[in-house]
TrEMBL record:
Coiled coil: none annotated. Keywords: Hydrolase. It is an enzyme of class 3 (hydrolase). GO terms for molecular function: arylsulfatase activity. Pfam families: Sulfatase. It comes from Streptomyces lavendulae subsp. lavendulae. Signal peptide: none annotated. Transmembrane segments: none annotated. This is Arylsulfatase. The keyword Transcription does not apply.
Amino acid sequence: MSEHDSTPRTPVVARRGFLAGAAAVAASAAAPALARAATPAAGPAGARPNILLIVTDDQPKHTDWAIPKTVDWLGGQGVTFTHGHSATPLCAPSRSSVFSGRHAHHHGVRNNAASHSLDQSTTVQRYLKEAGYRTGLFGKYLNSWTLADNPPHFEEFALLQPAYNDARWNVNGTVQTIDGYTTNIVRNRTLAFLDKAATDSRPWFAYVTPYASHAPNVPAPKYAETPVPAWNGRPSVPEADRSDKPPFIQDATATLDDAREVRTRQLRSLLSVDDAVQAIRDKLVALGQLENTLVIFTGDNGYTWADHGWLKKSVPYSPSHEVPFYLSWPARGLAAGTTDHRIVANIDIAPTILEAAGIGQPAGQDGHSLLGAADRDHLLVQWWKQGTGGEGPKTWASYVAKDKQYTEYYDLHTDASGAVSGTGQVSFREYYDLVEDPYQLKNLLYQATPAQERALGIPALAARLAADRTG
């Protein structure tokens, strides 16, 4: 089988346990744009909205150049969240949080090997399907998921074994090879799913998840040589003195040139995602369903571009856990090109979708619906080391606010099922003033005295972090 795309494009330059917790949530003093919308949550005349959820892979925040049509639609005619995060900057834990509205220490998928630990009865696709939604999945599902196993609660699916070209797929229960560029196949399968809305009156949920911009970041052939804007790094890239950082960062060796190469490939691979999003929007217009479709676009985690010498994800620095985050729903009044400065995360996606669909919120969610005024003053972000190997970061947890970030590293590790073991002893700490030091160059806890730590408010932050991890 073959699903190719030759359309020309003019590039635009320009199972649960050991730890628990939840981010603190408080009512916002000034209601955000989403809360001010007056239209009923169920859309016009009580009609339940369609749900389109687009989740890219390893897409950092500063990649808007590659997705201009997406930004124009979902940003210019929707809501741009300026503080979007992944609560665990790793693929399978993040995607499990998207599905469940829970932190990884609650849903149990603490690493990429533990995908089968997710309780599928807690997922948004289960609730939507049981509520009468037609459900579809197109693209990547969960790392370590067996390709021949059908993803639960999806009526129609094209499940990708991650690759960019001529990949293996499970299409509605049949494992097969489909020739072609996988982002285009995701697009075409999604469009065919949407076409059925012409004869099927049920509202639908489409989970659209291309492999881009994950390594090896292979672009479609037509974008293989597309020029990308020059990039000279940011202050965190050439950081010469990393003596205040944890040992694995002190040993990191990625350079600006390394970052430029990865950035170029990522941007080029995302150009096809932008094409797919535009094609999906055009299809919604043709079907007359754009108005009452809730669209959410985000990445499963960010990615560092040699920041502090690190060219990956899985670290507590901002580029690793910050992600693009857009939402549009014209029937709810969310089509005006507004910005929302609340701290939001992947754990908020399932609650938002369930509220929009008129489905009661299940117990145990850590996130909250973005359609209301709920706000948080900080977010728990965390990551677990799998195995006991000596390389890379240790398990860590972080208190992330707009103006500061406090991180603890622990003597903890997980096995392939996500179970945690270790002493839990804190082995290293970091604190950054994100107002004065947004690139996290100066760890204020390095060689700090107890008096200095008290002046920074560290005891209270440590207590809050402990409560988030055990609450």
